[in-house]
Amino acid sequence: MQLFILRHGQTEWNAEARYQGHLNSPLTPLGRFQAFQQGEILRSRGLDLPVFSSPLGRARDTALIATAHLKRELTLEPNLREITMGEFDGMTKEEIVSAYPDFDPYVKGWTAEAYGGESHTEAYARARSVLDALQMSSILVTHGVFSKYLRGTFLGLSHDETIHLPQEQGCVYVLGPDGEEVWTL
After folding, report:
1. How far from chain centre, in Å, is Cα 125?
2. For an engineered disulfide with 8, which of 58, 67, 141, 174 has Cβ 3.0 to 4.6 Å away?
3. Does residue 38 contact residue 170 with C-beta atoms inside 8 Å?
């Protein structure tokens, strides 16, 4: 089985370095272009596979743009949503430092341990449930941090390796028996 993982295109909050978590902001013009690029990558490879997307607007909109050429029904999968950062959803690092002086947002991998947020254990369990439910090669449209958990779980990586995976927009991460490769235009 192969998986083709797309991170949503740039959003207004990505451009502001604001953490979205379960909140949402719309795709920017660049974000819509990145989704179009992902579609061109998929089209150039002749892929015609089931498409699953996070129900959060930024991922759903990316999926609709990137897979429009497939003429397949989009399946919204709640377990593909981004991790929630609890009290930090919608904030920048600077706002977090100001509002929560006792919390260090510069510790590696901290995003899944934010106050009231989803823990690493919960995120890995959710990633495992997504992977276990798949019956065939598929296109998955998700988010930056959660894509790391999906990819790290699929590849059998350690936590440290997982949190250091890239989370670029406008490309396709391809997972298969030989590991991961990144497709770009």
Report:
1. 16
2. 58
3. yes
